[in-house]
Write the structure tokens for this entry.
Amino acid sequence: MENKTVEENFEERNYTQEIFDIIRKTKNSRLLAQTLTNYHDNDIADALTYLSPEERKHLYKAIGTEATSRIFAYLDEDVDKYFAELEDEKAADILEEMDADDAIDILEELDQKKARDIIDLIETDSQKDIKLIQSYRDDQFGSLMTTNFISIEYGLSIKKSINQLIEKAEENDNIETIYMTRDGQFYGALPLRDLLITKKDKDLDDKIMTSFPFVYDTEEITDETIAALADYSEDSIPVLNRDTNEIVGIITSDDIVELFTEEEEEAVGETKAVLKERRFDVRQMAGFVLLLLVAVNRILSIVPQFVYVEAAMIVTAVALQLSSQFSSRSAG
């Protein structure tokens, strides 16, 4: 597909026009990276088609591999063209930073030989996640899952649970729901908010939902199952290994929305609208919470007498305020 003309279809794409102008005019990489933090990754992805190959390379170098991977996750077309412009090692670095399911979506758009060459260069852990998801048939829930989730062993104290959360969140940012395991098997689900505001360890049991919905990895995807999952309106649903009951991944609300057929859209339109509203704010909210949790750890290292739960409650209060602001912004 040829690059579109700059003037084409910009009447309703103001952000894309601004991004295009910024990338084309800003030669200083540091300034470019800083300026683009004001724009959403989806809008930056839309602007790629208007740039020349040299301008795209300038963009990737300026913003770095992690930010580039976030942009590539939003690409709907021309993926093969953009990856053809990259050296295989650079392409592998970008895919390593992506959720395994997003990386697979991109690999499926590439020439098979190039895809194999890139996979060979990806680090072992990321390769393992990609090959796990690819091992399932397209009509099985395992093919839809992401390995970006956090699980915590049941029975830990609140303090140790939050410490585990912080440690694991360095690699996984789907934290609105924390999944609990017991002897390696799925035990239940715990909303992040409940983990943060619970004062006593013994009260944590009452917050864990042991009857939380789940699907098996080899379970066949049906319209009825998808509609049932949507009725829960959860941000994610765990996927279990049918033989071991181990959590192998999760299906996000985005995945559920995408599975609705055109015939179902009218019947479940309201549910879909709710899920879509939550799409971007949840992960942005998670970033704020993680930063605040890290700040609490720093406070504790300096002021040992500061009670951990009180610190967590401060985090929650600030997070809820931020959440309220995001909700108001989305409603507007």
Summary: The chain has two domains: 14-136, 151-275. Confidence is low (pLDDT under 50) at residues 326-332. Residues 14-136 form a domain with the MgtE N-terminal fold fold (CATH 1.25.60.10). The chain is about 55% helix and 10% strand.
